[in-house]
Amino acid sequence: MLLRAMRKTLWCQPIQPLNNMAYTHEAGWRPNSGSVLKSVGSGGSYGAMCVRFSDASEPDMTGEWFDENTDFCFKSAEIRVPSLFHHGLKIANGAVAQRFADAVFPDATITRVSNGLFGTVTLSPSDPLQSAIAKMIEAGALKFSSGSTVQLARRDGDGRITRWPLVELSLTPRPAEPRLPKIRPLS
Fold first, then answer.
1. DSSP 88
2. pLDDT score of 141 more than 70
3. What beta strand segments (E) does the chain contain?
4. Average of pLDDT values for 72-100?
């Protein structure tokens, strides 16, 4: 029932362009923490590209792009950041949408690959929100979108993002970069 409610709200909402690539949070941003109930459902490890390298000829929907020279401020081969649903923003009205917006899911792991960044997240089958997210992933409804903060991100005047310290990875039906692949179960 939760998945059905989310499907109705996900596909009937108009797409609103974001001000910049993926999403930037205001200074001082911290993820919300919410309580969850126990239930049984889907779960496991899921992954996909979360940043795609391109150039001025292939910007995202907001006219921006990452390239191989973008500084993601990695201090090691991989980083871990909180995962959120749709950058912690409500995508519809109502209590269910608010619970998804308030939830902070398990940390995502992000690694650099030749053509961008690859994200993975492990969702628990015993958490009803994580289970609902897993079902949306398995239905092919979600992609990743990276988030940084306004005071740390840097851009050139032509739309190239030069610095993007990752502070969160979102699972969303509407990323700024629509050419990213859908999140999929990992074997």
1. G
2. yes
3. 23-25, 44-52, 78-85, 105-113, 116-123, 143-149, 154-155, 161-163, 168-172, 184-185
4. 94
